[in-house]
Amino acid sequence: MSDAMAPILDIQDLSMVFGGLRAIDHVSMHIKNGEICALIGPNGAGKTTIFNCITGVYMPTEGSVSIQHAEKPREQIQGLKPNIINQKGLARTFQNIRLFGKMTVLENVMIGRHNSLKAGIFKAIIRDKATREEEQRLIDESHEILKKMKLEMFINETARNLPYGAQRRLEIARALATDPFLLLLDEPVAGMNPHETKELEETINLIRDREKVSILLIEHDMSLVMNVSERIYVLDYGRMIAEGTPMEIKSNPEVIKAYLGE
Amino acid sequence: MDYFLKLFLSGTAKGSIYALIALGYTMVYGIVQLINFAHGEVYMIGGFTALIVGGFLFSMGLSVPVVLVLSILAAVIYSSAFGFTIERLAYRPLRNKPRLSALISAIGISMILQNFVLLAQTEKYLSFPSYLPDLAFLHPVREYINSTQFIILVTTSVIMILLTMLIKLTRIGKAMRATAQDKDMALLVGVDINQVISVTFIIGSALAAVGGVLICSYMGQINYYIGFVAGIKAFVAAVLGGIGSIPGAVLGSFILGWAESLGTGYISSDYEDAFAFIILILILILKPDGILGKNQKQKV
Amino acid sequence: MTHKKLASELIDALGKSIWFVVLLFPFMVMKATVVSGVAVIRFRWENLPGIAIASFVLSFVWSRALEWNEHRGDTADTDTPMRRVQDVVVSALAHKPIRWTAVSVLLLAMAIYPLALGMYHTNIMITALIYVILALGLNIVVGLGGLLNLGYAAFFAVGAYTYGLLWKYAGPVFAAASINTGWLFWIALPLAGILAVIFGILLSLPVLRLRGDYLAIITLAFGEIVRMVLQNSGPVTGGATGISLIPRPWFFGIRLPPRQAATYIYYIVVVLVIMTIFVVRRIEDSRVGRALEAMREDEIACEAMGIDLVRNKLSTFALGAFWAGIAGVVLASQTTYINPDSFTLWESIMVLMAIVIGGTGSIPGAIGGALLLKLLPEYFRPLAQYRILIYGVAMIIVIIFKPDGLFPRKRKVYTFVDKTASGATTEVGK
Q: Does residue C89 lie within any of the structural domains?
């Protein structure tokens, strides 16, 4: 019987040391089921590094990252390979867009659904009825996801030819296609205009409400952060300096100091 | 023990030559992250230029020392020019394209140069007249080391020192180091990246040219294909020491030279070329960054 | 272009021309021969004007071409004459009757080829088709997977030597048991494929963690090691002298004379090519193929989407190696003699050149490139000795100006039928 209030992501005492640099210093944070949380902080604070520790790109020097979801027992995931972590239900987007540029929009999302199929090399060659049906299901599901992210008009476009805002949405669509219970967004609205930002704000809420996916985002755009997050973590020089609701964070003197200096 | 010493010294000489070539690889890789496949060919071209120009000057009646100096000079100038031209023609247009493209281009240039020399000159092995002096004071230790090997060792050491001084003390050296560390930043502080890259290619090629002349004098022969074999081995040496690291290239080169020398002396001479490949595979499995290499994590 | 600009460009070209004349002087004008330890230099002044003019023209053309390339940007694959021709052809082929007619004509032409053109041309075509199989195989590794394999000839060698060694060691056994040795071919064919796959997996193990450039070098090393081992294992593999008198494939117990044997091998290789194209197409348009392409595009994102890179890389090398193995058996049966010299680095690079020029990641590209590179030197004999030079230049030109190759891939277009509330349907996605 799992505790409904137990965090789906629990980071304890996480540290990441590169050579002589302590990029993350004993950071603890957690996400509860159904939450939208934000991780903010000045540039270079270590936010993406935390993402990388969560998703298996780095093996943290100290500390633990645990997940617990859907009746499954709690398990530690730090140090596991990124593809395993993704299979366990964590998906992410990247600070610098990492789409599969030469492939089409639809194909990018189809990659996301890679693990929902089983067909290996032999099945691919024989292409029996079951495989064909699987493939068609994959195509349809991917199409649905694109419709939800308002990208269906770009289905056969080459990914790298997309306008910037659409590329960012495509990365999110692709991440969603992997069926995560937690979505990690790294600066999802970087470079977007206010209209696109507003649209993404709605999309984020929709993802949480309709798809039942919790969200942790890194962002610099304060309006988005304040509008969409329930809780905010503030990182500075690798250390967690504040945690709280948007109201609390806004008036926190430490936070103000970190951003504006003394 | 005598045998070992002989092998050790010849291995050191060999390693010196590899070092001259490996430096070119490592410097270029450090700055543009490209394995310059065509670098070996530049080395071969240096040797050929020395042969041709030297032969011509000698036939004109110039004395041996003069021919020696001028042919080495010609080799250095021509190799540098070739290196410079190759970079401008085949690598610069691809600078912002995926790395695979530049690599393929480098392979193409390597093929072109090999074939070019083959067609323009000959596919045969030509004997290479050595104009290097025979040093009398070495005669007593002739068993262990001959004049050419000695000259190779001395020349290489001098060049290393000069190169280190260049990198550490001069303005262009600083620019090279800055560009290798962070190209964008260097650009922002006003470094002329194009110039730095060109200079790197020129220096690397010049070193290779000296190596080419020395080795051809030592082996007594030259052929259009030598660039490929030497190039691969020098590349292995650079990777062994840590690609991008100048002291690494030197260290790796000597290790390779000794391994080959001792290996062929004690184990088998059939597989001489295989030593390099086996070392390469081992190092890339065990420690891809090389002995002195820095762990380069990709930014995610 | 203004007169002033034109003038400055011409002067620039003139300068470059002088540069090249001086640069290439020792090599193209002077010629060295060594007679009893003394270098004899001959001057070939007749080459001088040629170099001067050629470099002048080419420099001018090259700078203009580079400039044009810069302004074009990456989205240049939209509306070129080539693409228009391609579109016309593709849309024509979309009609079943046209497609079937085209295929039938092609098959008919291929079927009567040996009968119409005789043994000499048939042999050339066999070699070309062997290279088509090689190109399609390497295309999986380089084109789909994005892994630069410079030691592909090693798998080719594995295939050829599987047959050769089978002949050497099992042949006498067969002969003693009065079984026609021509059967060995058919046994060798699948066996070579399997062995090549095993070698492919072995090769991929050390390179699993390596990036593009290092990967290329290790594959090169692997290729060379295989060749060296073959060369130095005289007692087992025949060493430098290789294996000879390899039998031709079994044809109902009859020993065919050379001409008919060539025809027979031709038909076999045609069938193999068709099979290869079929399988590679299926792989390309499947979950496996897409995973390979994702790996090529961005390894980190690929892994973040749940794909196991290790498995992917192993699959890539294994899949690619298989075809080289099969091609090797065909080669051995055609030439009836194999030795390590047929499997050098140049062979690997030749196949690479074929797919780069034809178009990496593109099946028509691989086929086109292989045919081009193998047939042209046969039918344009005067230029044959320059072929490596020409291919090298072509490869560089393609990679700079048309990185997707001469016959680039056209990605699959997905269509959806959207049902609106009123039940009307609109086709989406064209």
A: no
Output the pLDDT for position C418.
Answer: 64
User: Which residues span the domain enclosing C148?
Assistant: 119-401
Q: Which pLDDT band, with edges at 50, 70 and 90, does C82 fall under? A: low
Q: CA–CA separation, C176 vs C170, rounded Å?
A: 10
Residue in chain B lying closest to C214 (CA): B284
What average pLDDT does range C182-206 have in this prediction?
A: 88
In a domain, C79, yes or no: no
- With a threshold of 0.90, does the pTM exceed it? no
β-strand pairing of A36-40 with A214-218 = parallel
Strand, coil or helix: what is B272? helix
Residue spans of the domains in chain B: they are 9-239
The B-side interface with A (CB below 8 A) comprises 297, 300
Closest chain C CA to residue B35: C213
Summarised one tens digit per residue, pLDDT across range A1-30 is 445 577 889 999 999 998 888 899 999 999
Cβ–Cβ < 8 Å for A32, A5: yes
Under an 8 A CB cutoff, do B274 and C148 touch? no
**Residue from A90, A106, A115, A121 whose CB has the most chain C CBs within 10 Å, to mutate:** A121
Q: Could you tell me which chain A residue has the CA closest to the CA of B295?
A: A19
CB pairs under 8 A between A and B: 6
C-beta atoms of A139 and C301 within 8 A: no
Query: Do the Cβ atoms of B120 and C27 come within 8 Å?
Result: yes
Question: What percentage of residues in chain C have a pLDDT greater than 90?
Answer: 26
A52 CB neighbours in chain B (<8 A) are 300
Q: Is B275 exposed, middle or buried (0-12, 13-18, 19+ CB in 10 A)?
A: buried
Structure tokens at C217: 């070098």
C419 found inside a domain = no
Rounded CA gap, B269 and B271, in Å? 5
Element (H, E) at A26: strand A21-32
User: Do residues C288 and C377 both lie within one domain?
Assistant: yes
State whether C160 and C16 are in the same domain.
Answer: no
- Indicate whether C235 belongs to any domain: yes
pLDDT value of residue B9: 85
pLDDT at C422 over 60: no
pLDDT tops 60 at residue C219: yes
Question: Is the Cβ pair B126, C146 closer than 8 Å?
Answer: no
Sign of the alpha-carbon dihedral angle for A36, A41, A44, A46: negative
Question: Does residue C226 share a domain with residue C359?
Answer: yes
Shared domain for C130 and C36, answered yes or no, is no
Mind listing the pLDDT tens digit for each residue in C286-311?
Answer: 889 999 999 999 999 999 999 999 98
**Same domain for C308 and C202?**
yes
How many independent structural domains does chain C possess?
A: 2
User: Measured between CA atoms, how close is A239 to chain B, in angstroms?
Assistant: 20
User: Of the residues C14, C40, C72, which one is the last residue of a structural domain?
Assistant: C72
Q: Which domains does chain A have, with CATH numbers?
A: 1-89+180-262 (3.40.50.300), 98-179 (3.40.50.300)
Q: Which of A139, A155, A178 sits opposite C305 (nearest CB)?
A: A178
* Residue C289 C-alpha, separation from nearest chain A C-alpha, in angstroms: 9
Q: Does one domain contain both C68 and C135?
A: no
Cα-based distances in Å from B250 to A64, B43, B164, B288, C315: 42, 17, 12, 17, 38
Tell me what the mean pLDDT of segment A176-190 comes to.
Answer: 93
Residues C204 and C341 in one domain: yes
Do C256 and C135 sit in the same domain of this protein?
yes
Q: Which residues of B touch C32 (CB under 8 A)?
A: 48, 51-52, 55, 121, 126
- Stronger pLDDT, C157 or C44, i.e. the higher one: C157
What average pLDDT does chain C have? Answer: 83
Q: State how far the Cα of B145 lies from the Cα of C183, in Å rounded to an integer.
A: 59
- Best C282, C284, C305 member to test A by mutation, with max A CBs in 10 Å, is C305
Distance from CA of B62 to the nearest CA of C (A): 14
Decide the pairing of beta strands C416-419 and C337-338: unpaired
ipTM of this complex: 0.89
